[in-house]
Amino acid sequence: MTKAKKRADVFLAPEDDPREGGPTLGDERATLVEYLRYQRLTLELKCAGLSPEELARRSVPPSTMSLLGLVRHMAEVERRWFRVRMSGLPDVPYHTSADAPDADWDGAAADPALVEDAWANWRAECAFADRFVAEASTLDVLGQTAQGPVSLRELLVHMIEEYARHNGHADLLRELIDGRVGQ
């Protein structure tokens, strides 16, 4: 018999949820930006209140996935898409390299300085992306990938999907750590 989820098992009371209250009748740009904001905040909520040891805790062997790894990975994803592919800036990764393409996951260790650095990098990349989107003249602005051009519109949809997928992982990782479940 499974125990019923108690209110204490969830993250926040609905009235305290910072994800609520965004635009609901916005135009296309406002809608996409709001959905991306919501997904980013969800990742932050899943990591809130955890120690470096808990953030670095791996899921199940042989996986190297952890909440800290997710934050590091999403900083790399934001950087690669907005700075490199959309803005054409040099590709200067935080963690990964040709020799260590999974370093964002593999290097996620229970070190307070590493945790602080991961959050600072992620927040800097989110801020850069937000400025890029706000300053773009249209959602048809193009970036370049190895497969060809990509519009800002397509990128925003991709980023929402990327966060949503990884937030599903974060739900399971957080439940493994302390039993808190999702919203």
TrEMBL record:
Region of interest called Disordered, as start-end residue ranges on this chain: 1-26
InterPro entries xrefs: DinB/YfiT-like, MST-like
Pfam families to which the protein is assigned, alphabetical: MST
Superkingdom field: Bacteria
Protein's name in the database: DinB family protein
Taxonomic path: Bacteria, Bacillati, Actinomycetota, Actinomycetes, Kitasatosporales
